[in-house]
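REVIEWER CHECKLIST
Item 1: Sequence provided? yes
Item 2: Single chain? yes
Item 3: Sequence as submitted:
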Amino acid sequence: MTLDRLFRPRSVAVVGASSTPGKAGYAMMRALASFTGEVYPVNVRGGEVSGRPAYVSAEEIPGPVDLALLAVPAAAVPAALESCARAGTRAAVVCSGGFAETGDAGAALQDHVAAIARAHGMRILGPNTSGFVNAADGVPAGFLPAVAGLPAGPAAIVAQSGGVNLSLCFLAASEGLGISLGVGLGNAVDVDHADVLDHLAEDAGTRVVGLHIEGVTAGRALCEALARLTARKPVVALKVGRADVGDFAKSHTGALTGDFSLTRAALAQAGAVVVDGPTEMVDAMRALAAHRASPRRDPGVAVVTGQAGPGLIIADALRAAGVGVPELAAETVSGIARLLPPLTYQANPVDTGRPAETFGRVLAETAADPGIDVLAVYALEEPDAFDPVEAIREVREEANPPILFGSGGPGDALDRRQADLSAVNVPLYRSPDRVAQAVRALVADSQARFRLGTAPRSFAEPPPVRTIGPGPLDEYEAKELLSGAGVAVPEGRACDDREAAVRAFDQLGPPVVVKILDAALTHKSDQGGVVTGVGSRAELIDALDTVDALADRLGRPARYLVERQAPRGVELIVGGMRTPAFGPVVLLGVGGVDAELHPDPVLRLAPLSHADADAMVRELPRALASGHRGHRPVDAGAVRETLMTVARLLVSCGDLKEIEVNPLRLTPDGPLALDALAIVSPP
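Item 4: Structure as written out by the authors:
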């Protein structure tokens, strides 16, 4: 169902309208003073509100009402909605608090509101929201009158919090970025993130979207809508709640992921540019509203600076973030050399020494380099030295890459410069680090579009095709599951007694690893249940004694896993689990002594595409990928195939709750799953 009646109403009823300053109904009427459609105050006492006749109920309003704004206590909301529905209104904003955020009674009241929406086909924004502002059409639907003054423009904000929505709208406006639509979802009893994202995909006035997330319950639906939107328009996402790891962080893999990291990873996988704070979000939106870079696996960025120091800050920040700042082609450097003094650095960054009349030609030569996709420029405000707008027009004559401009100077001068640059579709940033952050947003968007290809990726979870059967599974059974799917495991034997363990030792040959085989014991090494480097019969007996002692402490019969010891190599962690909000999720982490290189795991929703798996491997530390501590470089293709196999296994087996290979050792003969955990849902 379209959201036009909600966001583009021709007539609005304010239920709970008031003439008393300080009340929400008073503020709503003030906000709507500039609305050009019909406004109908509704107040149970009747009379007059803001110079307009007030109606006792929505059903008394003589004309059709597209949207109802409710400013009544929570307990009165259901009756007010029913009255609006009987009057033919099919969209409402419920600003009142006192619903699910307050506890069980409030949750029950919220369920009642949801039932009303379903029964009448009514779209409801909220409850517990500040409303929305449609600056493009002049609809300030909320209780903050100041939103009526927000300038119209290409940026939409979709925020879980009404307060954050307003904060971001005003922040964007202060940076010269106008608003098409700003929405505070509140408790999202009906209209949610996905609904608004799909609406914005069709909105011709929106060129970029800012997305604020606090918590996610329907993660797959969110990613589906996000992928549909990012195929057409850029999205910048801010996830808050860094310290909250979520309820599912109960197992080893879950403890590594956490709600914050998982949500950010899912948003990025669906094509969003993920940022760390509101200012960074607005800076990224300004860049992406002006221009999207072409899709590239590794976009190249050129830095041209009028002053060496700021240029160094930009280049340093970009390289630290893994953004490519490549050397320019020899032909480009030759062309630049004819324009600049000989002592300046001209390879990238390009240091002009000081902007002069050749500055525009330097920019044009650099922008035309075949390895450059984004141009970052910094020059202090020197109106007598050069004209940035004229310089950029010289670039536009030969190339059209995204250009971001950084500068420093008096505030009023920069305000004028920002207005001038906006006329040529170039955003201005007032510090070098903000230029670098905005460039990273352009690069992230370019890489996401390359990874997702030409069509929106589906994030719908495919139905499982089989079950594993009753659990729990011990390590040997978990490895059989992995081996059957195509993941290599060390040759080994499951042994019910010591005699069988001795036979396994003789068959495999030394050295071997001896482990306790117990499905209930997930951290064997921590409790002395793993003995490595067993090279003789005598050492085998000692290892079995060690395992027996642990089994005695646990009060269970001893069983053994005897495996051929694997050669040394880099160790990774590959895992997957079913999460409440996002379903199957796959994890790649660094294990063993190299864990300090990259303590945070790489996460993606399953199933994985080849591009997803490649991107995961590319996020491993460079030192590890290129060879570290005497190890061979990581075989990216082999790791990619292991990730995709684990993802397929997790998705296809409906009762597989969690699977973990820790470690996956990268040996000269390929990856080996040295330890495995598989948790199966009870029947």
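Item 5: Key structural point noted by reviewer: The longest strand covers residues 656-667.
Item 6: Recommendation: ____
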